[in-house]
Amino acid sequence: MKKLILIGIVGLLAQLVDGALGMGYGVTSSSLLLFVGLTPAMASASVHLAEVGTNVVSGVSHWKLGNVDWRLVLRLGVPGAVGAFAGATFLSNLSTGWASPLMASLLAVLGAYILIRFAFRPPRVATARRTPHTYRFLVPLGLVGGFVDATGGGGWGPVSTTSLLSAGKTAPRTVVGSVDTSEFLVSLAASMGFLAALGTSGIQFSIVGVLLLGGVIAAPVAAWLVSRLPARVLGTAVGGLIVITNLRTLLGVLGAGTTTQQLVLVVVALAWVALVTHAVRAHRRRPADVEALEPETELV
To answer: Per the UniProt record, which residue ranges are transmembrane (predicted)?
Structure first.
């Protein structure tokens, strides 16, 4: 029961992060599920099944607040669904011996990317509420993002949101809202891929249920907070947490001794604290650079 309560709380916090940053639900939740002993395929399957529900609530919330560009949702989400189904099939057919280090490596890399991205290069400020990006850019992005998401148990946001924000052509709130909404298609396709390959016998629906409950509770709040949270600080903090969680798994796979593991984790934790401190100071010095997720503007 304590484990389920913890997972439910993580689902709630992960959705708050995801709804505010456009990333973080899958990588945060999958990292925890790997930590408590689920296999990579089952962890990813559980997270994506839960995300089908949370994405609906999150998408509706963002839509009501005017954060969604439906053209972007379809152009990104449909190829994302194709990539996610392929990624789920690929992960389901890997042996656990290969899947665990692969998934932990992907999650650690994604966590490091989030950490560095928000510590040193916060999202650019843009005001366009409809994306100018074409199929040539969005289709490959969706395919790669969907495949990484299913294979790594998360990654749709880190791949899609950061790419769109880095381009600096679409308002951050529109990017976050549209990526969150398109993730419904990705999660649904990934879930279908896992169910087709694994069936339902190994899936713990109690875990899916508490992840879903936590996410559904947090989704409306997260959509409201998207233009109010200090994303630079939040992204840096979440990225470091993901790195440390998965680094433990990688060190164990590599056969590192207890002393070595503890030393590496302490060094990484100290670096993480330093980066969070840097992000806080940078946010206080130039708050307009951080989250100036643009003033309210009318849809065009």
So the answer is: 32-51, 72-92, 98-116, 137-156, 203-226, 233-256, 262-280
Q: Cα(23)–Cα(222) distance, rounded to whole angstroms?
A: 12
Residue of 193, 140, 180 lying closest to 19 (CA atoms): 180
- Predicted structure pTM score: 0.73
For 135-191, the pLDDT digits (tens) are 899 999 999 999 988 887 778 887 888 788 777 688 777 888 899 899 999 999 999
The residues, any chain, with a CB within 8 Å of residue 284's CB and separated by 6 or more, are: none
Contact present, 84 and 187 (Cβ < 8 Å): yes
**CA 121 – CA 286 distance, rounded (Å):** 13
Question: How far is 212 from 231, CA to CA, in rounded Å?
Answer: 24
Query: Cβ atoms within 10 A of the Cβ of 265, count?
Result: 15
> What are the respective helix, strand and coil percentages of the chain, to the nearest 5?
80, 0, 20
Q: How far apart are CA 128 and CA 165, in angstroms?
A: 12
CA distance 277 to 286: 14
Residues 223, 229, 234, 236: is their CA dihedral positive or negative?
positive
Among positive and negative, which fits the CA dihedral 231, 67, 135, 190? positive
